[in-house]
Every structure is written in structure tokens, then in C-alpha cells.
Amino acid sequence: MRRVAAASVFSLGFRPFFLAGAGFAAIAVAIWALWLYGRLPGAQPVGGMLAWHRHEMPFGFATAIIAGFLLTAVPNWTGRPGLNGWPLIGLVLVWLLARLAWLLPIPEGLLLLVQVPFLPLLAWAIGRDLVAAGKRDNYPVLLVIALMAGAQGMTLWGIAVDDAGLQRRGVLAALWLVAALMTVIGGRVLPFFIQRGLNRAAACTAQALPTRVLLLCSLLAALSFAGGLNDVPRLWLALLFGLMGVLHLLRLWRWHDRGIWRVPLLWSLYLAYAWLMVAALAMALWHVGVMPQQSLATHALAVGGIGGLILAMIARVSLGHTGRLLQPSSVVVLGFALLLIAAVCRVFLVPFSGFGLALSALFWSGAFVLFLARYTGILLKPRC
Fold first, then answer.
1. Which contacts (CB < 8 Å, 24+ apart) does range 124-132 have?
2. Domains in the chain: how many in total?
3. Whole-angstrom Cα distance, residue 272 to residue 186?
4. Which of 83, 190, 206, 231 is most open to solvent, judged by the fewest CB atoms within 10 Å of its CB?
5. Confidence class of residue 8 from pLDDT cuts 50, 70 and 90?
6. Range of the domain at 162
7. pLDDT value of residue 384
8. What's 324's domain CATH number?
9. Please, which residues have CB within 8 angstroms of residue 126's CB and are 6 or more apart in sequence?
10. Residues 6+ apart with CB under 8 A from 39
11. Which of 379, 362, 376, 266 is nearest to 321 (CA)?
12. Global pTM?
């Protein structure tokens, strides 16, 4: 048992959670696509396959990666030891049990109950270190995790009472909360990664005021979804999302360096961040009656923004924190391209052909399978 706790994979949070999250991303989307096209007969999980898909992508896949990143970043921010050994194993098992519960013949109430503990436990694990170290500038991260727990509660309640509208509101709120977190983290790490990756003299750091405005706008967007305010077009929400899109665009312009297009670990992050801008502007267009389907904006955020940033980030962080050269293999670079194509298919091809869903799912799952093929050994082995 001591050997298990001392294994390299449980030395820091990014190792098990990046593996688990990437594996789940590939499997969950493949299952969803097979069901959509009638290739997956049999009993459906509690609430149906749509409820499962809605819940598991933000609260299963995304939260695993968020946990891995924060459990690795917070020790760097605070100088305190990171979660490892049996406490980390316990948190991983809480996440895993919640995923497996959907497959088990257990009462509905118990199934929904086991989904609840993960986010509060994650908030406690990182919050105690942030508070102990007095890192108040990182308290917004805790706020976002707490609000995500609330969004999950709304989603689970919607499943319990068979209210599809409530489920949808909770899930969309969660997606924009993830966007808020990526706005904060991305504003810190992308300029730093660009500076380090291109050997520039100084990083182009995120400006404080635009960053705070973006965070506030993202939180308001999440709350507007939770409150059902995006069910019908509203001019003030068009202005809110439009402001977010413009601020994201200004960030991209400010960060741009022609050298990034020669470095896969940089252009993958840069293009994925651009999908946050696309999603915000698409929501603004929907609110003024130009965009026909709100779901296109949602999937621009979910597939291109969240999926793309996650894949690029875990590829970069995994290399850096295991002491490897920051040079991904050609297989992983192909994965970056596949994820980008998956987003293009889901947003721009689906309105014209249902075949776009199949292509998007295929490329998404393929991207994460390629990541696992090259990174499983890296994440399981000791630091170089």
C-alpha cells in the first residue's frame, strides 16, 4: 500500500487528473456520438443520455482537468506542499466513483448524491493553502469553484425533478464559469508561455483592469444563464457578450507575436483562446437576432475554447512539470489540429449537415487518444 501512495503518478495532482480527464474526454464523447447515431442500444442512465452528457462534460471532464491544474499551481503560488499520496488518491477516487455511479444499478438519489462531494473537496484542498498563505489575489479562483458547485447542484436538481430547462441552465452557467477561470488563468500563463517559448525579453502581462472586467463579465454571463435570462434575446446581454468578445480580441492582439506560429505549444493555446472570443461574439449576435442557434455559441466555447485550451494546456504543463523539453511530438501536434477541426465541424458544419456531429466527435476523441498515447508514460514515470 505504501508503494501505491508513493508512486510517481500520485506525487502531484496534474498526473492522475490529466490522465483521468483526457481518458474520460475521449470515451464520453465517443459514447455520446454512438448514442446519437443509434449505434448504442440498451438502457439509458438516470435522466437519459442528454442529461448524462450535459452533466459529465463540465462536471466530469472539465473539473478533472481543473483539479489537476489547480492542485499543481496552488503549491507554486503559495510555497506549500501539494496534495499527494493517499489524500490525492482519495480525491481521485471521489471523482472516479461519481463517473462510475452512472453505470451502477443504484438508487437515483444515491447516484446524484455521489456527484456532490468532489468540487467542495477540491475547494477545501486548495482554499486552505491560499488562505494560509494569504494569497487574496487568487480568491476569485475559489469563488469560481464554489459557484461551479452551485451550478452542479442546479443541474442535479434538474435531473432529479426531470426539469430539462433547469439542467440546461445549470450546465450553461458552469461552462461560462469555466470560461471565467480560463480568462483569469489564461491572462497569467499565456503571456508567460509566449515570452518563455520565444525567448522574449519580458512577458506581456495581462492588464489589471481589463482582466477584472472580463472576469466580472464572465461571472455575470454565468449568472444570467443560471437565472434563465438567456432564454430569449436581450439587448443588454448582447452588450455584455459583445464587451467580452472585444476584450478577448484586444488580449489576442496584445499577445500576438509572429513567432508563435512556429511553436505548436503556443499556437495551440492562442487559437484555443480565440474560441472564447468567438463564443462571446456569437452570443452577442444571437441576442441581436443574427445568429440562428444559441447552441453554436455554446459549442464554440465548449469544444473550441474549453476543449482546445485544456488539450494545449495539459500538453504544456505535463512536459514542464516532469522536466521534459517543451517540444511535443508530431503525434500530439496532430492532436492539436484535430481538436481545432472538431470545433470547426461542430460550429460551422453542423448547421448544414448532421454529419458534422460525427466528424466533430471523431476528431475530438482522436485528439485526446493521441494525447494519451504520448503522455501516459510521461505522467506515470518520475520527473526527469
1. 125/71, 125/83, 125/87, 125/91, 126/70, 126/71, 126/74, 129/74, 129/75, 129/78, 129/80, 130/74, 130/77, 130/78, 132/78, 132/80
2. 1
3. 11
4. 231
5. confident
6. 2-380
7. 77
8. 1.20.210.10
9. 70, 71, 74, 141, 142, 145
10. none
11. 379
12. 0.95
Amino acid identity, position 382: P
In tens, the pLDDT along 72-120 reads 999 999 989 889 999 999 999 999 999 999 988 888 899 999 999 999 9
> Which ranges in 199-234 belong to alpha helices (H)?
208-226
| Residue 137 CA, distance from chain mean position | 21
User: Which among 200, 192, 145, 182 is positioned nearest to 320, based on CA atoms?
Assistant: 192
Q: Which residue has the cell 508561455?
A: 193
Q: Are 46 and 108 in contact (CB under 8 A)?
A: yes
Residue 291 to residue 317: CA distance in whole angstroms: 36
Assigned C-alpha cell, 286: 444571437
Q: What would the grid cell of residue 276 be?
A: 472564447
The DSSP line for 339-354 is HHHHHHIIIIITTT-T
Q: Which residues contact 94 (CB under 8 A, 6 or more apart)?
A: 117, 118, 121
